[in-house]
Design a protein that fits this description.
Elements: H1 2-41, E1 48-55, E2 58-65, H2 68-79, E3 86-93, H3 106-118, E4 126-132, E5 135-142, H4 145-156, E6 163-170
Parallel strand pairs: 2-3, 5-6
Antiparallel strand pairs: 1-2, 4-5
Length: about 170
């Protein structure tokens, strides 16, 4: 009888521990996604090649920014995401004059972003509302936060896009 009670208690402990670990993974995934969205859509700076890793609420950022001030603003932006405990800022400062200059007008950028979104069938309800000086405004709906991030990253990857703003509505929330 004691052996059965001990077995049940042990199994219960393992199940609870697994649930806590799974919950931490979900939270870390959510924090990573929200941090990336915040970095890619916040006015005032641009992060190229943004990569975010989160472990137990501790965020590490990789990528490139134009100035030291942008690096600081990016870190402050990520610190404001709910659940972030700490930020390891590994963003590299690469001055704008060092980057390849891309001369693109807004109508060309809009066409390229629309074409890029069209290649992904999950982006069928995502629209390019406008492009102004390389700033792309996305509108429409996505089925999940992950798809919203994918749409933003997709637009951000197009040459001539300097920033992406989002008015996307996520059905999942």
């Amino acid at each position: 009888m004691k052996r059965m009670a001990l077995t049940v208690a042990l199994v219960g402990t393992i199940v609870v521990a697994a649930a806590v670990v799974a919950r931490a993974d979900v939270n870390d995934s959510w924090i990573t996604t929200k941090a990336k969205i915040a970095l890619l859509t916040t006015d005032g700076f641009s992060v190229n090649g943004a990569n975010i890793d989160t472990i137990d609420g501790n965020v590490t950022m990789h990528g490139k920014v134009a100035t030291a001030e942008d690096r600081t603003r990016a870190e402050q932006t990520v610190r404001e995401v709910k659940g972030v405990k700490s930020v390891n800022n590994l963003l590299q400062v690469v001055p704008s004059e060092v980057k390849e200059l891309v001369a693109a007008n807004d109508s060309d950028v809009k066409e390229r972003v629309e074409a890029s979104l069209k290649t992904d069938r999950k982006m069928k309800d995502v629209k390019v509302a406008s492009v102004n000086n390389g700033v792309v405004l996305l509108s429409g709906k996505t089925d999940s936060l992950t798809e919203e991030l994918r749409a933003i990253e997709n637009a951000y990857s197009v040459k001539g896009v300097h920033q992406v703003a989002s008015e996307l509505q996520t059905v999942e929330n």
